[in-house]
Design brief:
By secondary structure, the protein is α/β, with parallel strands linked by helices. It has a single domain, classed as Rossmann fold (3-Layer(aba) Sandwich), CATH 3.40.50.150. 40% of the residues lie in helices and 25% in strands. It has eight helices and eight strands. Strands 1, 2, 3, 4, 5, 6, 7 and 8 form an eight-stranded mixed β-sheet that branches. Helix 1 crosses helix 2 and helix 7 runs antiparallel to helix 8. It binds S-adenosylmethionine (SAM). The site of S-adenosylmethionine has 18 residues, from loops.
Length: 252
């Protein structure tokens, strides 16, 4: 099974289908993995990425250094009006950003404003409230996974572990025309690859929230959960599944 990002980027490419020298914007681009996938397929495309974290933008800049088309990577707060002209871009993609924004409807209105008529948007969001991690005793498992779905670290202005399942409805209620909805499920019976990274994210995020004196689990519960997950893996009982919801839409 391809790694999560690889499968998702294939869907971004297929569903956004930009002209080969068109402009593609990744909103909340992080270290630029999706833009790098567009660069490989469309070596002359104009690639634009916005994120608030300058460290991530520096990594994206390194990653896109050899791209032959124009590249623009800038710091921007995507809770506000995007630093783009109206009707100026061919495709917009974004993954796992929307739950961080207090007003997703404003974000979708902005996407509508900056897309050219006929331009396409593809959004993806994991539904963190339906993560499956088999290993720990059921009560501890529910407690930890629900605490992660509701976790709101300082870098997020808001959090919504159910954003994945809400995505189709939010896009349907926006000025864009929703054209496609699908799910992408990553699963693994081994604690490796994406499963190991996500389990590590859960452990790291909840430990740091507990250390700030917030959240619903303490560090001992987090470590007990992590030890049980590792034990399950050693005994061949581990299972992991994460569902991302992918929604495509266009501007008329
Ligand atoms: C979960 S990461 C996803 C990164 C990337 N899209 C990916 O899928 O690998 C969310 C990203 O959104 C960015 N972000 C969160 N709130 C933001 C805001 N208000 N404005 C701009 N970027 C923001 C974070 O800095 C982070 O890089």
């Amino acid at each position: 099974m391809p790694e999560t990002n690889e499968a998702l980027h294939d869907r971004f490419l297929a569903l956004s289908d930009p002209p080969s020298e068109g402009s593609i914007v990744d909103l909340g681009c992080g270290a630029g993995p999706a833009l790098a996938a567009f660069a490989r397929r469309h070596p002359k495309a104009q690639l634009i990425g916005f994120d608030r974290e300058v460290e991530s933008l520096a990594k994206a800049r390194d990653r896109l250094r050899g791209h032959s088309g124009p590249v623009k990577l800038e710091s921007a707060d995507l809770r506000e009006k995007f630093p783009l002209d109206a009707a100026s871009v061919d495709a917009v993609v974004s993954s796992n950003l929307l739950e961080c924004l207090p007003d997703p409807t404003l974000f979708l209105r902005e996407v509508h404003r900056v897309l050219r008529p006929g331009g396409r948007m593809v959004l993806s969001h994991s539904d963190f409230d339906s993560l499956v991690v088999s290993g720990a005793p059921v009560e501890l498992d529910r407690k930890v996974l629900h605490a992660f779905a509701d976790d709101s670290p300082p870098w997020m202005d808001s959090s919504d572990g159910r954003m994945g399942r809400k995505l189709p409805g939010l896009v349907a209620a926006s000025p864009l025309v929703r054209t496609h909805v699908e799910t992408l499920v990553t699963h693994s019976a081994e604690l490796s690859g994406h499963a190991a990274r996500r389990v590590g994210d859960i452990r790291g995020a909840l430990r740091s929230t507990a250390r700030r004196g917030c959240g619903r689990v303490d560090t001992v519960e987090v470590e007990d959960w992590y030890a049980a997950v590792q034990q399950a893996d050693a005994e061949g009982r581990f299972f992991f599944a994460e569902m991302a919801v992918v929604v495509a839409a266009h501007r008329v």
